Amino acid sequence: xRYWTIALGLxxxxxxxxxxxxxxxxxxxxxxxxxxxxxxxxxxxxEPGRTQDVTAxxxxxxxxxxxxxxKADNDCDAHSxxxxxxxxxxxxxxxxxxxxGQPVTLAVPPGKPVDQTQTVSLHVFDYQEGVTYTIHYKAxxxxxxxxxxxxxxx
Length: 154
Prior knowledge:
The protein is mainly β.
């Protein structure tokens, strides 16, 4: 597999209050790894709900000199993603989160990047071969992007 890694600098606002997705924390950078090309089985019956699970790997880095605690209302709210085509049109996105669940936190200490993986379920029939897509992945309000293509198997 080939992974693209894009490092992000400082984000735009302190995550001191409210949902981590509303305010991205200052002082945390993200590198995102996403495979390319992604092989998707598009043969057989064109089942509209068919998905292909892909692993997103991300690395959160503390750019400050103190531990940064990232928070979200629940695990689902801590992770979201959107895929866009070259024109910026949204092609696919993570499902809406159900209400409830336990709050989650993630400590990012200085000098010790936090490496995590998360499964992304892409809707097979939303993609075309030969198109470069961009995934916009958010973990605890910190966003990273990566480009990818798909290979449709019949």
